[in-house]
Write a structure and sequence with these properties.
outer membrane lipoprotein receptor (LolB), chain A; 13 strands; globular
């Protein structure tokens, strides 16, 4: 006849408690809304964020994959943004969203209109109050735990109205967004972005170093000069007078 040992009793007790333990762990997680509210506060708060009406950035852009380095400027105001990068031996690369349409230009492809996921991704960078609009982007959000490097993080997986889900990693201690994973606008693989070296500009914290990786290319972006609420000429967002594809291919970036 089998006997019920103390070990069996402990095993049965642990098995019985398992569902409650799992439920308690899940209940201990903050909600997506709580994490996003903490994110707003960590960046500087709603009032400080809403006071930013324009931003001018200068920095360096390293295409790690090809060992190429360049400089860039980005100007943003009134839901418009333009980024201009210069690479020695290659030329000028421009991306622009003028509030309605997006376009890009580089020595290899010349001028082209941005569309679909590429346009949507770049258009988001034109929103200086994007931190306040994160909740509006997703129709469904779930929360889990994870890591960014050696730091604990809460992961908010958000499902936009269109397209695949995105993952936002918030530092468990300070609440800042330190990593973002989203589908590549080119339609293959995932873009991973790491945000580091946060600094305060007019009461708003901005990551001044960004590592961006896709299956095809790795970038290192460093923002060396950031000015906010400065005059920006509307002409910077105009399409070039001769918006045509390149007639002679430029040397590929190597």
């Amino acid at each position: 006849m089998k006997t019920l040992t103390s070990g069996s009793i402990v095993t049965l007790a642990l098995a019985a408690l398992a569902p409650f333990t799992a439920a308690a762990q899940e209940a201990a997680l903050p909600s997506a809304d709580q994490l996003l509210d903490k994110y707003v506060a960590a960046v500087g708060g709603k009032d400080a964020i809403q006071k930013v009406t324009s931003r001018a950035v200068k920095g360096t852009l390293d295409v790690v994959t090809f060992g190429a380095s360049g400089t860039f400027e980005q100007f943003t105001k009134s839901n418009r943004t333009v980024m201009i990068a210069e690479f020695a031996g290659y030329g000028t690369v421009i991306q622009c969203f003028d509030g309605k349409t997006g376009w890009a230009s580089d020595p290899q492809q010349g001028f082209r209109e941005m569309q679909g996921a590429e346009l949507d991704a770049f258009k988001r960078s034109a929103d200086l109050q994007a931190v306040l609009h994160t909740k509006d982007r997703y129709k469904k959000m779930t929360v889990s735990k994870g890591k960014v490097g050696d730091r604990d993080a809460y992961i908010v997986e958000g499902q936009p109205a269109e397209g695949a889900a995105e993952k936002l990693y918030f530092d468990a201690q300070n609440g800042l967004l330190t990593k973002l994973e989203m589908p590549s606008p080119q339609g293959s693989g995932t873009i991973s972005m790491l945000f580091e070296d946060f600094k305060d500009f007019d009461g708003v914290k901005i990551a001044t170093t960004v590592h961006q990786d896709t299956p095809e290319i790795s970038l290192l972006i460093k923002m060396e000069d950031i000015k906010q609420n400065v005059p920006i000429d509307d002409a910077k967002f105009n399409k070039p007078a001769e918006a045509t594809p390149a007639s002679t291919p430029a040397p590929a970036m190597k």
